[in-house]
Specification:
Number of domains: 1
Helix content: 40-55%
CATH architecture: Alpha-Beta Barrel
Number of helices: 14
CATH superfamily: Aldolase class I
Radius of gyration: 20 Å
Shape: globular
Strand content: 5-15%
Largest sheet: 9 strands, parallel
Bound molecules: iron/sulfur cluster
Structural class: alpha/beta
């Protein structure tokens, strides 16, 4: 009897279309902007779970069972001159977030010890300021990077804001910096609603200097800030165009006192769908689930890997808490995933560029800076 089996509202044509797109990506092909937007607009749970299943296959195909773990140290906290609407550390808002100057060597070396103990690949020094110029502060930052590198326990990463000179990026590289975190935050269209004290182009320019210095790029964004699905899709294609190596997906955790404090959280399935869409668009990149994971996904956290995530921010975030790293390591073990990423050098990723062949491609603009 077929009657009950066929009496369903599930649209089988979506299943076939998803399969065709998934097979194409698995075979080394790419999906178009229009196809990606169709994925972002999937609505039924049957379609979204189908999408997740393909994203999982793509992750496994390109990444195996390796999961890249990162942690961060808040290397200079609070009193930031910028007005990013999601951020507890902006001096424009009253959030009660801690404030202190640039970090001494001890907390950084303690973070490296802890990372080493927990199979965490990288420790990133994150500073709450607009950016980094030449001068004594750059010297101090380079000292911390050199110490981390010399310790040999973890990959030294940093997220130090906007860079306006090639020399600054070159100095960071010489000190031993391997990867720099600099999110695009959202689409070019939506960016002015997140920040007006610097621009999307300031961020692209910084990434251009870093790439020219030979530093790997960790760049992603935040979802749940009131942006549309089109904005999320545009962000993913921008990240493809700039050749980001690691793509952090943060999920807004609204901070009391910031302009975004009253935004409603995204539904869990919308978050998982977004991660899966990113995996389709960025099949070889490390897609890292970062801030807002615990509070937004709760019991569904382990589903991020089925949605295509291949990297995880562990330990506490800059101003909010995460679940204990032991719990994350247990989650990976339970899923048969391996956090040991030591010898990985990003060589499994595509070269920078989106592969579209268009002369006006933003990748060319960024790469030629
Ligand atoms: S996100 Fe960074 S640049 Fe923006 S306010 Fe926060 S610390 Fe400053």
């Amino acid at each position: 009897m077929l009657s009950t089996m066929t009496a369903t509202s599930v649209d089988a044509s979506s299943h076939y279309k998803l399969s065709a797109l998934g097979e194409r990506v698995l075979g080394g092909g790419q999906i178009t902007r229009a196809e990606a937007q169709w994925l972002f607009n999937l609505e039924t749970s049957a379609d979204i779970l189908d999408l997740l299943s393909w994203a999982n296959r793509i992750r496994e195909h390109f990444k195996g069972n390796k999961i890249h773990l990162c942690s961060i140290v808040n290397a200079k906290a609070g009193a930031c001159s910028e007005n990013c609407s999601f951020c507890a550390q902006s001096s424009h808002y009253q959030t009660g977030s801690p404030k202190y100057g640039f970090v001494d060597p001890e907390p950084v070396s303690e973070a490296a010890d802890e990372a080493n103990l927990n199979n965490v690949t990288a420790v990133g020094l994150v500073a709450a300021w607009k950016g980094l110029n030449e001068g004594p502060m750059l010297d101090e930052v380079c000292d911390r990077i050199r110490e981390l590198k010399a310790g040999g326990k973890t990959r030294p990463d940093a997220s130090l804001g906007i860079i306006k000179k090639q020399e600054v990026a070159n100095r960071l590289k010489e000190a031993g910096l391997e990867c720099y975190g600099h999110n695009l935050e959202s689409s070019r269209r939506f960016f002015p609603q997140t920040c007006t004290t610097h621009t999307f182009d300031d961020r692209l320019e910084t990434i251009g200097y870093l790439k020219k210095a030979g530093i790997k790029i960790c760049s992603g964004g935040i979802i749940g800030m009131g942006e549309t699905r089109e904005d999320r899709c545009d962000l993913a294609f921008e990240l493809k165009a700039i050749g980001a190596n690691v793509v952090p997906v943060n999920i807004l955790n609204p901070i009391p006192g910031t302009p975004f404090e009253k935004l409603a959280p995204l539904p869990v399935m919308e978050i998982l769908k977004t991660i899966a869409c990113f995996r389709f668009i960025l099949p070889r990149q490390e897609i890292m689930i970062a801030g807002g994971r615990t509070v937004n996904l709760r019991d569904a956290q382990s589903m991020i890997f089925m949605a295509g995530a291949s990297a995880l921010m562990v330990g506490n975030y800059l101003t909010t808490l995460n679940q204990p790293v032991e719990k994350d390591l247990q989650m990976l073990k339970d899923l048969g995933l391996d956090p040991n990423w030591d010898s990985h050098d990003f060589s499994d990723q595509e070269e920078a560029g989106c592969g579209c062949g268009e002369k006006s491609c933003e990748a060319d603009a960024v790469n030629s800076m």
